[in-house]
Amino acid sequence: MDFMVWGADFSSVYACLQSTGFKPRYLNDHFFLIDDPPYPQIDFYRITLVEPGLVCEHWEHNWILETDLVPTKTVLNKSFVIPNRPEILLQQWYGEDWKTPQSKKGENFPKHPYC
């Protein structure tokens, strides 16, 4: 499972997970994960707005149109960044056959020089 977290909230999310008993592991300033059995691995990616309308996911250097993430969605009185058009985003990142399991991922990710 993957989560994208705005850069300004990245360390707060990490601290919050620690305070609830999870053991997140930083791999660098752009990515951390939770790999605590019996739970599945959960990946957290730092995202930032690098230019008007363009969001960068820094771990794999992918870009996302801001309109695909904003406005945020409210669930149970909490605001979340949830893709507005998830099928289009997944197709952009993983290709036409994104629903088919692959041995590796990310070869189709769009790259941007600011990411």
Structural class of the helix and strand makeup? alpha+beta
Structurally, the number of domains stands at 1
Radius of gyration: 15 Å
Number of strand segments: 8
CATH architecture: 2-Layer Sandwich
Order of helices and strands: EHEEEEEEEH
Strand content: 25-35%
Largest sheet: 6 strands, mixed
Task: Describe the protein.
The protein has 115 residues and is of the alpha+beta class. The protein has a single domain, classed as Beta Polymerase, domain 2 (2-Layer Sandwich). The chain contains two helices and eight strands, in the order E-H-E-E-E-E-E-E-E-H. The strands form two sheets. Strands 1, 2, 3, 4, 5 and 6 form a six-stranded mixed beta sheet that branches. A two-stranded antiparallel ribbon has the order 7-8. A hairpin with a 2-residue loop joins strand 4 (42-51) and strand 5 (54-57).
Key attributes of the depicted protein:
32% strand; 17% helix; six-stranded mixed beta sheet; 115 residues; single chain; two-stranded antiparallel sheet; alpha+beta; Beta Polymerase, domain 2
